[in-house]
Amino acid sequence: MTVHHPLPDSHYTIVSQASDYFVRRKPFETLTLLPKGVFTLDRTPKGDEHVRYDWNFLWQLEQIHNGLYKLKVKGAPVGNRGGHLYAFLSEHDQHSISEWRLVPVPQVGKDAYLIELHDQSIGWVASAEKAPKDKEIEVKRIIVEPSQPPKYPPTEVFIIKPAKHEGEQ
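User: That's the sequence. What structure does it adopt?
Assistant: Structure tokens below.
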């Protein structure tokens, strides 16, 4: 049985297993404090497991308590609004920030996770479309195939890897 240790507070990249697209905010956004959508954007470079240490691709994971995390993209914490994932920039929207549980899916790979709301009622789901670029991440009920070990659709599995600085091995 594989033991999974909590991910340490640090910077990571998050990639949809279904498409190999990075999960992130758009590089060019309106200059307002309105919530910003989170999308699948840009394919993972072939042969490179870690994207350069680029602010546009980074997620900050901060463990808060009981295995729960606050997730931030481009410095803004994320949460569910209307069934979609948003980054919240304004103090006015702080009530919308969610606590997330990272559930290892070792049968898929060592860096594979479900990302679920703290109560495990709903989680992140990427688009199942053939061309998923620029598709918002949905937040909805996770589908589990009853098997041992459990099986999840690739749209529900995300690859979370530590970000590396330029030149790092």
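The domain at 10-162 is CATH 2.80.10.50 (Trefoil (Acidic Fibroblast Growth Factor, subunit A)).
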